[in-house]
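>> received
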Amino acid sequence: MLSMAKERCSCTSSLVLLLFFLSSIAKAQYHQALNKEGSNISVSSFFVFGDSTVDPGNNNYIPTIFKSNFSPYGRDFSKHQATGRFCNGRLVTDFIASYVGVKDEIPPYLDTTLTLQDLMTGVSFASAGSGFDPLTPNLSMVMDIQKQVDCFRDYLKRMELMIGKKRTLDIIGDAIFIISAGTNDFVVNYFSLPVQRQKYTVQEYQLFLLQKLGELLQDLKDVGARKIAVAGLPPLGCLPVVLTINPLNRIQNQGCDDTYNQVAVDYNQKLQNKLSSMQESFIQEGGGRIVYADIYQPLQDIILHPGKFGFEEWTYGCCGTGLFEASFMCNPVSPVCPDASKFVFWDAMHPTEKTYYLMFKTLGDTINRLVLD
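>> returned
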């Protein structure tokens, strides 16, 4: 199903040979990148795993209809071009990478045009439509979390050939890792289809997802990751698509769906407990930091007080009717609001660049805890 991605995430013999001959050049460029005059960068690189909230365009390179590499996506991005980001502009991860001085935009790993500098300073392995539950990515034929880890392992092999194993491990050890997933597991999978609801209660499903997250965290630690941030769930009941699926709140103008929001709140609490437990084990096994990135409260604050942040609408997305459009349903012939900065959401599921920026601003302390020694 994902043959193109599988081929992209494996090293062919010709690639190995090419990388071997490039290794001496790569080593020189590596030192140049890490020893820029006057640089105070304390983060070597930036790696991302997850779903459409952090996918900058990996789905462009796999056979899925869940893409956004066409207008009006990217309308406010650099050069006003769609990149595969499910947004009108930059994502939270782009802003964080710029904040720590690594790069202004995180590229997708499956982009075959990436330079050595691109690879050394970090990439995203995320795939829009993915989730921690293996069933979730199958629904959209996108890369599951394990395939994303496989791509990361491929990345490590490529880097070891170019700059050596020790230098690769140095990069990984001083890199920031961001994980953002879970929304699709609930909105697209659990609450929309009967399969998992027949097997799990909501509480059991939350624990199932956290078990899968724990496996991902252990995989990353095993290959040298030491600075990991895990994003919680947003207020699920405030997403325009959820208000459309469950229209009573929209019809009665009652605001967000409290049932969905409570699921997110409960999950986020369990997630924080899980991360605290794993943090203790990481310390015992040689060190590392795992932090919780709260995106629920910042987005909830924006929704409860939109005028305070300069917004005029949060119940509808900017693209199309704003009720259900996302991906191919938000397309070049869709009507689009003239000023996305007035909207909390770009399409029916994803925030606008302005919203992502405001959310990023609340994460400064969280990122600092990872960066500062």
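>> The CA atoms of residues 228 and 341 lie 30 Å apart.
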